[in-house]
Amino acid sequence: MKIAVTPGEPAGVGPDLCVQLAQRRHANALIYVCDPELLRQRARQLGLPLRIKHYQDGAALDAAALQTEAGEALVLSLATGKEVIPGELATENAQYVLNTLRRAATGCLASEFDALVTGPVHKGVINDAGIAFSGHTEFLQKLCGVPRVVMMLLSEQLRVALVTTHVSLAKVPSLITPLRLEQVLTILAADLKDKFGIDNPRILVAGLNPHAGESGHMGREEVDIIEPTLKRLRQGGFDLVGPLPADTMFTPKVLQGADAVLAMYHDQGLPVLKYQGFGQAANVTLGLPIIRTSVDHGTALDLAGTDQADPGSLHTALTCAELMAGNYKASKPYLAARER
Questions:
Q1: Do 6 and 138 belong to one domain?
Q2: Residue 241 in 3-state DSSP?
Q3: Global pTM value
Q4: If both were cysteines, with which of 2, 8, 173, 232 could 121 make a disulfide (CB 3.0 to 4.6 Å apart)?
Q5: pLDDT tens string for the chain (340 positions)?
Q6: What CATH number is associated with residue 186?
Q7: Are 267 and 163 in the same domain?
Q8: Quick check: helix, strand or coil at residue 244?
Q9: What is the DSSP letter of 78?
């Protein structure tokens, strides 16, 4: 398999993590979509060996051309807009960040790459450059032309997907609609099957209100929206449990046998997962026609160019991408046939 890797914000820890990732040999081909000089500079700052091997853009490469040894990186070269100083954001490099992401994603859409693993970006500096940007997820959704995507974080023990993501808590109730909930659960169940190899995924669904609304006494969303939607989907064959009180949903007894948890909003589900596995978890975008995983952390500008960055989450994201890509090809035989 060929996995495209974008380091993200060049002044952050993304390049450090890529240099660290390149220190060992990998079973699959990793293609770093970035400025090769950026990786060289960061390797020198980290005191790590790094040889650059150039990817022939768009060419049909044999296995030998894709193979790298420990301490070697295969790079699809795109130039930064300005010299990079670790820890110092520069609006001149905002377009470069989006160029790397666009090139890697279009390569996945064209089956040139089997999956995309992304390093952390800095939304603020991209917007400061005059480019409207709310995040990887929305960028890829638009690029791939899909109506709905689902954000899911996973660790070794837990998968947590979200109905709503980066919106204020005040806006969440109005966004919990039957259509949105049905779309999210349909995407979640389909991708757990096609990309994670789970034949009949069992999904725990949180309520919105404390104690899942207490039969309507603490809020009507469960009674009027969530319960009827779950009932309708169960009749269609979905294995759904809930709505459950979020304060007890993550206990071992309740989680037993579950393949994923669906939380209604960002801080209902992610604090639990990040407490349980921060630094070793990965972010996955479901609902795309491509495989995309990412780290569970930000740019950590203060750690860039030091030897303090932990590559654990990037390793998890890579392992997850490889697993998902393999399962996706198995569930879609025509994808595997393209390589024969």
A1: yes
A2: strand
A3: 0.91
A4: 8
A5: 999 999 999 999 999 999 999 999 999 999 999 999 999 999 999 999 999 999 986 555 677 788 899 999 999 999 999 999 999 999 999 999 999 999 999 999 999 999 999 999 999 999 999 999 988 999 999 999 999 999 999 998 899 999 999 889 999 999 999 999 999 999 999 999 999 999 999 999 999 999 998 899 989 999 999 999 999 999 999 999 999 999 999 999 999 999 999 999 999 999 999 888 777 899 999 999 999 999 989 999 999 999 899 999 999 999 999 999 999 877 765 455 445 4
A6: 3.40.718.10
A7: yes
A8: strand
A9: -
Tally of structural domains, the chain? 2
* Domain coverage including residue 129: 1-146+288-340
| Interacting residues of 313 by C-beta distance below 8 A, sequence separation 6+ | 279, 280, 281, 282, 295, 296, 297
CA distance 335 to 113: 11
Q: Which of 133, 128, 160, 158 is nearest to 268 (CA)?
A: 160
Place of tokens 């380091």: 7
Q: Strand, coil or helix: what is 118?
A: strand
Residues 140 and 157 in one domain: no
State the maximum Cα–Cα separation within the chain, in Å, rounded to a whole number.
65
- List alpha helices for the chain, DSSP H: 14-21, 36-46, 63-66, 94-109, 123-128, 136-144, 172-175, 178-194, 221, 227-235, 246-249, 252-255, 266-277, 312-331, 333-337
- Judgement on whether residues 139 and 164 belong to the same structural domain of the protein: no
CA dihedral 18, 29, 114, 311 (to 10 degrees): -30
DSSP string, 284-312: EEESSSS-EEEESS---GGGTTSS---TH
Pair 80, 193 in one domain: no
Q: Do 154 and 129 fall into the same domain?
A: no
Q: Do 159 and 83 lie in a common domain?
A: no
The 8-class DSSP code of residue 88 comes to: B
Where does a domain end: 261, 280, 299?
Answer: 280
Q: Which residue has the tokens 């005059």?
A: 130
Q: 145: which 2 tokens?
A: 């032309």
Q: Which amino acid is at 88?
A: E
